[in-house]
Structures are given as C-alpha cells and as structure tokens.
Amino acid sequence: DQQVKQNSPSLSVQEGRISILNCDYTNSMFDYFLWYKKYPAEGPTFLISISSIKDKNEDGRFTVFLNKSAKHLSLHIVPSQPGDSAVYFCAALASGSQGNLIFGKGTKLSVKP
Amino acid sequence: DTGVSQNPRHKITKRGQNVTFRCDPISEHNRLYWYRQTLGQGPEFLTYFQNEAQLEKSRLLSDRFSAERPKGSFSTLEIQRTEQGDSAMYLCASSNRGVDTQYFGPGTRLTVL
Known about the structure:
The structure holds two protein chains of two kinds. Chain A is an all-beta fold. In chain A, 0% of the residues lie in helices and 56% in strands. Chain A contains no helices and eleven strands. Chain B is mainly beta. Chain B has no helices and eleven strands. The interface between A and B is medium-sized, with 23 and 28 residues.
C-alpha cells in the first residue's frame, strides 16, 4: 500500500507558466516532507522541504505547501523553465526516523518552450 | 570529482549468483543511505548508516541482503542468491546532517537473468 501517492504520472506546462505538482500521504506519523528532482541517468537531487509545523516554505521559484488536515502537499514552480523538465519525487519521513524516506512514484514534468 | 560514486555502474548476473556493490560517499559525510528503485517507482529505502553503525533497516530487506560500512567511510551492499526480482537500480546517498542534505550517487543498475 502506497503511503505517499503522486497520482499524476506526467504534467505538461508552457514555459513561463506555473507548474503544480501534487502529493498525498496516508501516514499521520509523517512530520517532514521533501521534494526531489531527477534527470535521466542521474541520482535524485534535493529541491525543497517542509516540516509539519509549517504550511508553506519558499525557495526562489519553488514553493511547497502543506495541508495537514487533507494530508496533501504541493510543489509550485513559478515561472516554469525548460530546464525544470525532469521527474519530481515527493518523499516523507516519519517522526523518530532519520533515514527511512518514503517516496512517491514520481511525476514527469515537461516544460515546453 | 567530489560527489558520491558507485561501482560498478552496471552489473549483469545470473540468478543464484552473489553480487556486491560499492558506494564511496562524499568525504566527511557521516551518514550513508541505500535505496532501490525499480521501473516506474520511486526510490525505496533499504538501510541507513551513521558512521559505521547501521541504525535503520527496511523490513523489505530480506536476509539475502547485507550492507556494511566498516570504517565509517565507503559502504558495500551484498545480495546473495540473486533473484530476477532483485533487478533494479541501487542508489546510494550520503549527507552530513539529515535527509535534506542527501547527495545521491548515479546508481548501480543490476540485471538478473
């Protein structure tokens, strides 16, 4: 049973527009959430994270929103650039764990010029 | 290159054989993680070391899998009596603080025939 779900396998967005990637989770013990970006033939790269005590974290063009009551988080990329085209993974860490990251299946983002 | 390195990059083996992979973390990173990624899935946590101590281990890790980090530097992941279901990309990551400072290696792709 998937504890972290990314229900959209792919997303296509025009350059300059907003990209919104969604993630849902089921485990109430998760208290830290991360987004990773992955290019082909490379390992994932950390993008941005959020603790469960916050509802928003911003870093440049990337903003993560957390809705704990809905067990939902989203990653907003504004403005989207062609170089953002990659697979994006949502991941969660349970309270008390230091390493057991639970990943979603990923969403492939394509940003068209 | 001062990133995380993994060797070999590709391994093809016959069912029933043993295989060993090596991960060299970024120098002075005291935390090391192993993940497995199959096609269409996100990375799946296997185990986590802080220095030479193995602190967390996934319940998914059967007794055919063993990981070591004898001197708190490089790590090895051994799979005994490989099965076709072990075919996957094996990713290693290291950090000096927590999961949001993880740097991933390029992975070792295992194919079991």
